Amino acid sequence: MSESRLVGYYQLMKPGIMLLLVIESITAMFVAVGTRVHPTALLSLAVVGVLASGGSASLNQYLERGRDAKMSRTDSRPLVRNTIPPGHALIFGTALVSLSLVLSYSLLNSVTALMVLLGALSYVFLYTIYLKPRTKWNIVIGGVAGIFPALAGYAAGAGYVGWPGLFIGLLVFLWTPPHFWGLSMKYKEDYAKTGFPMLSVLMNENQVIHWIVYSSIPLFVFSLLPYFLPVLGTFNAAYYVVAVALALAFIAVDVQMLRHPSSDTGFRAFLISLPYLFVLFGAMIVSVLI
Hints:
Strand content: under 5%
Distance between the termini: 46 Å
Radius of gyration: 19 Å
Number of domains: 1
Number of helices: 14
Helix content: over 70%
Largest sheet: none
CATH architecture: Orthogonal Bundle
């Protein structure tokens, strides 16, 4: 197999999103069992996460290859450039998701396998096929797919789905709208060409900016909720310091967006959201290990 073909398969898996979802699941496992994390289980979870996320992303690109060709952000993807035949991408994605289910069931447990399955189904069928081409709230409702990696990770550690796993998943759910709405502002014309009813296409810049701000505030509040509801997780002061610092940085961007609403300032919400969850999850892991 040529190097370009190998790179193409790697790109099909959307490595950036894949990394975030794998870290989400690993964070939930650490929160579930703390220092009692077994290295073999941790490695198994990471492999399952790569396969499930990468396979779902491949199926997403297979389904959206026609629209991807119309967008400057996605017109270099392997299916658009014909680096990989569509049929091969379909087989590749289906095989990865199927293998993730087999491994999660055999190496971890049935609850983890169920969460992996629900995550893949919600991303491919609920979000990609049904919501994304039909409603401007596609990102909001479709964000439910981002909850399942945390539930899978918690179940991989504890054997069941617990409240802290749901808390971690809901952080991703609340993070999704301001992240993708900020991105969609920059590529408004692209989304208009594809026919996707993104918020940035159907509303003016000022309205979208306000929705980004409105959607970011619950994220900040929710990140601090375990302090008042320990059932959601027991974290030390370091986590809350990081959570507050991240919230203040995001709020500073929110204020700037409100003062100067434009696609450029809206895109800054996307940029600051990129490291947000990575840093927050890192603080969680450190908090439960020390």
